[in-house]
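User: I need a structural model of Thrombomodulin from Strix occidentalis caurina for a docking pre-check later this week. Nothing fancy, just the predicted structure tokens so I can convert them on my end. Input:
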Amino acid sequence: MAIAGLLLLLWLPVAPSGTQCLEHDCFSIFWARRPFAEASAACKRGGGHLMTVRSTVAEDAIAVLLQNRSGHLWLGLHLSPPCTEPAQRLRGFQWVTGDHHTDYSNWASLGRRCGERCVTVSQELRWEERHCKEPADGFLCEYNYAGSCPRLPPAEGLFVTYTTPFGAQGGDFLALPPHSTAIIPAMRLELRCDEKESGGLCWGCATPGAWPCRLANGGCEGTCHEEGDRPHCSCPDGKVLEADGRNCRSPCAGAPCKHHCIVTGTTFICMCDSGYQLAADGSSCEDDDDCAMVPRLCEQVCVNTEGGFECHCHLGYKMLDGRCQLISHCYEAPCEQQCEDVPDGYRCSCVAGYTVDPQVPTRCMLHCNRSQCPAKCDPHTRSCECPDGFVLDEETNSEETCVDMNECDMNYCQYNCTNHPGGYECHCPAGYRLFDKNDCIKISEEDEEGEFSGDFRPEPQTPIPSRTPPKAVHLHPGVLVGIAVGVLSAALALLALGYHLAKKCCRPPTTMDYKCSSPHEKEMGLQPVTSGCAASGQKL
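Assistant: Understood. Predicted structure tokens for Thrombomodulin:
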């Protein structure tokens, strides 16, 4: 029975002997002899853990809590590896929070020890190692919170007693953790540190509404008023009371407005961004179709977007300086197959095997400039098509080959006929001209007078040679030089001959027809032409 009673005593709740609370942390001292594991469990039952001393702030809190009492108190340090590591700041020890982070240490000795070791702190604030199963004189607990409530402002004749969730009591706390209570016996009032609707912590009570204004403004966030014995709170303009009757909030707090909430007195209205309109529910926003609401909003194409619109251009145009500029005339061209831009517009063209229809320039028709071409066949219907003037090759039973049809064998022309791939051409004899594509008519005398007849001027007919004329032969430059020299020599010879004949016929007779004066000279073989020679002899 004695052992059972001892065990029960060990597990009974223990009240802290002193507590220091900051904005986010509370530190408590428990004077109860416990081994390390039991001390750690006691801290956890209160929502905390054995104290971690990572800075001088925590060390200062320990100094205040000890209050000149001596003893060894467990800290939240225990050895993880088999032995200590003197070179490390924590010497291989680990915090009960599972980490090794610290900016502070204060070891009493640095010797190397092994085994199950934990750490205590004494009045000198030095850290000492001891076996974890040995009881220490007490332990230090640490409690962490996201926020706290400030102590209530002092009021004359009112005494306040605070109690923390982990059992610490007193009236000199600077900050209180969540779920702490404040008891004011003179008012028979108990307040609790709880979270308010708009966020944060504040003192409140289970009953909505204000308490007497002389204690912390009756708990009012705004103004506290007392009419008779009934205090009440009021809020400044643009705010309304929350459900607790003490705190104030904006009417837009929690409002369902999708975009904007505007406060109007004690209520609100929802508004939407530009490009949206308020839906029927008064809070949602729907996109405006700007393109439908404003006619001709864009020059060519208007595209509605979430909260706005965009202007686009048709194919063949591009956006330049906010305007659609034409970059191709082919966009509106009715070309059946292909189109190309030209300086003054567009021109239709066709793919291989087709040519532009001379009657309808925007359409294409099958075309072949040889006597044999492949047919245009539909793979689904297995039907084939040939260009004008061609037929499917029946002689070879080929359904995919087109051969030229010889129209000249069909007596299309009245006189002469010339066949060519895909067509033919008729010719008329001399004195006739084509009347239409096939027939010839006789040319009248009036037509032969040409432009003076004034009625009809026949187009010149290109004669068809009976045989192919020989190709022009280009002479070598040396041959040309030889021919030129020969022609020049012949011309000079004719010129010399002409000069000699002219000289012979035009010479005076005295210089030609006479005998010499010397009797010993032979007579010249020239006979006198006139009697002038005898007269000359007489003079001699």
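Before docking, keep this in mind: Residues 290-326 form one domain.
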